[in-house]
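Fold sample X.
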Amino acid sequence: MPLRLNPTFRAALAASDRPLAGMWVSSGSAVAAEIAAGSGLDWLLLDMEHSAASLETVLTLLQVAQAYPITPLVRVPWNDPTVIKQVLDLGAQNPIVPMVSSAAEARAAVAATRYPPEGVRGVGSALARSARWSRVDDYLSTAADHVSLTVQIETAAGVAAAAEIATVEGVDAIFVGPSDLSASMGLLGQQSHPDVVAAVHAVFAAAQEAGTPVGVNAFDPVVAEAYLAAGADFVAVGADVALLARASEALAHRFSAPHGGERPRS
């Protein structure tokens, strides 16, 4: 019996009457991914850029997320057609490509997700989970319908080119990364600096003018709320490793004695 793939991130954004909230899975842990997938959030970002996650890891995380009503996105480490091809063949429907700073780079990312003649994606669906080993009818002719591409704007050059990037056919969403953006602006670690926030807003304006959904990374709830008020269509509001780090620190602060002090007695 033919199989149907899940709706894409593009479809989820189009169908929603509110901004979509998501979080990162940077640990590579299948247990963490399953906990996050069942959280009630809208989308999950499985990261390969700033983690030790391998292709095998991503396959496992995709399989885990499949059981839950959440949309998984996979961030590849670079705008590399070989890696994008491999991730798509694993069954990732929603790749995120980092560090896209020009329309040409955006077009290259689109080409990596499309079969010829529109793109350069290698044809191996009969061997891959993407088409469920040829159990998805007409996958080759409809593959573009099953893939939603998000590109990240994370540099000052990307901000300057945002209007062009947002109009590239095949770019379904733009995701702004304030951390790298602040670094490229000479403001390393100052994601909430007024100039960085203004640059994020400039990308929002360019994307909104083009009718392209736009999101942003914002782990601080106050910052996230401000970006939502500014029109963000989707926001990443946390990460598994950050949540564990902060929660374990809070436990230590509450229950561990200060250095040199005595532990409280019951």
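Fold sample Y, listed below.
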Amino acid sequence: MWLANITAQKAFAVAALFLTSGVSAAAIPSGLLDPASVSVAPAFATDVATSTQIATTGADGKPTPVPVADIPECRDCRDEDEDDQTTPSSLESVPVITVSSDDNSSDAPSKTTREPATEAKRAATATKSESKYAKLEKTLGKTPEVGQGYAIKIRSERNEASGVKYVDHYLIVVGYVSQTTEGNTVYLKFDSACYDIEVKDNKIEFKDKSDKTWYDFDGKFEVLGKIKSGLTHVEIEDYGNSIATAMDKKGYNLLTNNCRDFVMKLYKKIKA
């Protein structure tokens, strides 16, 4: 049959003749079936990169060009006598391009290869305490409360040559516990002052011994208890001066009007 000897491109041309306006089946020359009678010339159509046209006779008897778009010849559409020149492409030759999710073609690494974020290790918190605080903690026998005020009684003793110890003096230390943080270090302090009385020319005077290293005194330390909150050193000193003045009127007495009495009277005035 004649259809067995026509290629796919020529068949497409024949079909296009039937669909072209003004061309009837009777107008198709019998010689079209012969490849030698087909006039093929290059032409250009809208939106078609390359096309061909076939010259034939229309219904009015005039030559009519029919545009036919070129069809890529795939392997199944080529004539059987054409050699297969197709060479399979290698996947190894195709470059792999990574594009970030925000359409930015920068060299940022893809999410699949990014290393997980490592949490920075926090430095260990260090705690430091001053000597006054350390002495309060040791005397109290437990951790002092931050913001709380305490009163400490110090009993100074004198060693005799015979080996017997006698009470030499009494002092009182009053203050408040504070805490500050600098970087990763916590500082604990006992903001305190040391007071006592002194007899000079038979006169009892109030004395501030805060500049002394009372925490290193050789004696017995005892926490009397907590003191009122919010007291200032000025207020405490005023209480101490008032007590010393009252004691001076009676005159110093080793049994009833001495340094021990001063300590206990001042603590009674400021105790919580």
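Sample Y note: The two ends are 124 Å apart (CA to CA).
Also: The chain has a mean pLDDT of 74.
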